[in-house]
C-alpha cells in the first residue's frame, strides 16, 4: 500500500513544483489555473484526464469558463503521495 | 440582454427537467451525476463541453473520479435563464 509523504518530504516535493500549495483544511495539494477561454481550459483538462487515466490516479477539479482549480490527494493513503506529485509534475509540464 | 426567469417560469421549466434543483444560496440550478468510472464521467463532460461551446454558454462543474456536479447560471443576467434550461435539457438528453 502506498504511503503518504511526511511533512518534510512534501515540502521538498512542493519546492520542485510550480505554485502548488498545501490545502489548509485537508491533506491535499492544490493549484489554480487561468486560461484564455473555455476552449483552452477544457483542452487542458482533456490532456490531464488522458494522463490521469493512464496513471490510474485522478484529480478532483472545478472548472468555470477559463478557470480550473485542481486538488490532488491519494484516497487510499488518506493524504499526499508520490502519485500526486507525479500528476502535478505532468500538469506543470503542459502549463506555464 | 437576456432576462432571468421569474420564479414561476423557473418552476415550470424545472418540472420539465430531470432532477435539476434550485441552489439555495444563489440564483442557479444544479444536478449531480454518478457514472461507472472516470472514463465514463469525463466522456460525459466532453460531450457537454462541446455542446456548451457551440451554445456559447458554459457550466460550472466539479468532478471527482466518477462524480460530476454541475451548476448552471447566466452571469450576464445574474440568474437562471432559458440558456441554462436549454443546456440542462441537452445534458438530460445524454444521461439517464
UniProtKB/TrEMBL annotation, chains A, B:
Group of enzyme by EC: lyase
EC number: 4.2.1.96
Reactions that this protein is recorded to catalyse: (4aS,6R)-4a-hydroxy-L-erythro-5,6,7,8-tetrahydrobiopterin = (6R)-L-erythro-6,7-dihydrobiopterin + H2O
Pfam families: Pterin_4a
CDD domains from the UniProt entry: PCD_DCoH_subfamily_b
Keywords: Lyase
One GO biological process term: tetrahydrobiopterin biosynthetic process
Taxonomy, superkingdom: Bacteria
InterPro entries: PCD_sf (IPR036428), Pterin_deHydtase (IPR001533)
GO MF, any single term: 4-alpha-hydroxytetrahydrobiopterin dehydratase activity
Family, per entry: Belongs to the pterin-4-alpha-carbinolamine dehydratase family.
Protein name: Putative pterin-4-alpha-carbinolamine dehydratase
Organism the protein comes from: Paraburkholderia sprentiae WSM5005
Phylogenetic placement of the source organism: Bacteria, Pseudomonadati, Pseudomonadota, Betaproteobacteria, Burkholderiales
Amino acid at each position: 500500500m502506498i504511503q503518504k509523504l511526511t511533512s518534510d518530504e512534501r515540502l521538498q516535493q512542493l519546492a520542485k513544483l510550480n505554485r502548488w500549495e498545501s490545502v489548509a483544511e485537508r491533506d491535499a495539494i492544490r493549484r489554480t489555473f487561468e486560461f484564455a477561454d473555455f476552449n483552452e481550459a477544457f483542452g487542458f483538462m482533456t490532456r490531464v484526464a488522458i494522463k490521469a487515466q493512464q496513471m490510474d490516479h485522478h484529480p478532483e477539479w472545478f472548472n468555470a469558463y477559463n478557470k480550473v482549480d485542481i486538488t490532488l490527494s491519494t484516497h487510499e493513503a488518506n493524504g499526499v503521495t508520490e502519485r500526486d506529485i507525479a500528476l502535478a509534475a505532468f500538469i506543470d509540464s503542459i502549463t506555464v
